[in-house]
Amino acid sequence: MQVISTTDDLAKFSKALRAQPFVAVDTEFMREKTYWPILCLIQAAGDGEEAIIDPLADAIDLAPFLELLSDKKVVKVFHAARQDLEIFYKLLGEVPAPLFDTQIAAMACGFGDQIGYEPLMRTLLKAKIDKGSRFTDWARRPLTEAQLSYALSDVTHLRAAYPILAESLEKRERKHWVEEEMEALNNGDLYHVKPEQAWKRLKLKGVRPKEMGVVMKLAEWREREAQTKDTPRSRVLKDEAIFELARLQPRDAKGLGRARSIPSGFERSRAGAAILDTIKEGAELPREDLPRIDKPERERAPADVVELLKVLLKRQCEAFSVAPKLIASSADLEAIALDDEADVAALAGWRREIFGEPALRLKRGEIALKLKKGAVDIIEA
Q1: 117, 123, 258, 314: which has the highest count of C-beta atoms within 10 A?
Q2: Cβ(163)–Cβ(57) under 8 Å?
Q3: What number is the average pLDDT over the span 101-105?
Q4: What pLDDT band is residue 117 in, cutting at 50, 70 and 90?
Q5: Which architecture characterizes domain 195-289 according to CATH?
């Protein structure tokens, strides 16, 4: 087992991988006590090449491997890539490309909604994965042989699974399905929260218009503090504290100290003073500059139409061996039930061909559903 802890060894390994068409990549990280994930290990494997990279080693610079991730000639293979991509986006300033996510590919090949790594590898490779090292403290050194073997197996299995899934997509003429999903993963906004947009992560049910400016500014302040101090948001200010302070809108330390969500003595701290300034700033925002939260009640979709669309979706997904979640959500079905031109993914591209167009034809009465030998079938009406 090759464990790389120097820049020279990493450069040689990365150079060998850049000569290959694809590389399987995985990471181990910790983030329980930080805002940003702490990268503890990188595992990578290509044809005849595999290694564990130790980012915590004193004598290593990750630049050679990051150059590999930026190489557009090499496909980067991940499973459920979002968290790994967040790490590399922070290091690179861009999303590694081109990408291939085996979880999304498996959904396109009919392996179910968001299939996990272990069941997918068991199905494709008959692989038996030892789960004993799953909850390892990956930041602790030295790591045992068992821990390293567990980490490396993630990419050696991934290396073997990729050609199987790629071939299946080619045979089914679904390669472009996954390519569309990979384009969506290239959006950098997925991996970095802009402080001024942090309020969008909150559940705003029950927030009154006069409270909205304070909620927005407190969420922004919390996000900046968490990012600057590299600490979890909840350790700066909990969600319930944001909403309580938006309701109370205290003007001084004494008022801040009355809030149940604020620890005793916090109101006299520098952070307490900053929160009071932030509340004042949020309360003074012009009402017309705030987003609308008193949305009019949405028209309810006809329940019978939604139920028919659910049956059709299940039928189409079984007929084409594709995971339902990759086609349409419950909200999408409700939108289609209300509007033939709804702005949902199910009415565009390959999804429209598989489900969207039949859904519209079902609404128009041009096709019908019937039972045939115990299974749902489509007939021309």
Answers
A1: 117
A2: no
A3: 97
A4: very high
A5: Orthogonal Bundle (1.10)
Report the DSSP beta bridge partners of residue 41. 28
User: In this predicted model, which residue has the larger pLDDT, 293 or 235?
Assistant: 235
Sequence spans of domains, the chain? 3-190, 195-289, 303-380
**What is the arithmetic mean of pLDDT over 235-245?**
96
Intra-chain end-to-end CA distance of the chain, in Å: 63
Query: Does 1.10.150 match the CATH number of domain 303-380?
Result: yes
Q: Which CATH number among 3.40.50.11930, 3.40.430.10, 3.30.420.10, 3.40.50.10140 corresponds to the domain 3-190? A: 3.30.420.10
Q: How many whole angstroms separate alpha carbon 279 and alpha carbon 211?
A: 10
Contact, 65 vs 44, CB < 8 A?
Answer: yes
pLDDT in tens, 137-178: 999 999 999 999 999 999 999 999 999 999 999 999 999 999
pLDDT higher than 60, residue 23? yes
SS3 for 354?
helix
The encoded tokens of residue 275 equal 């929160």
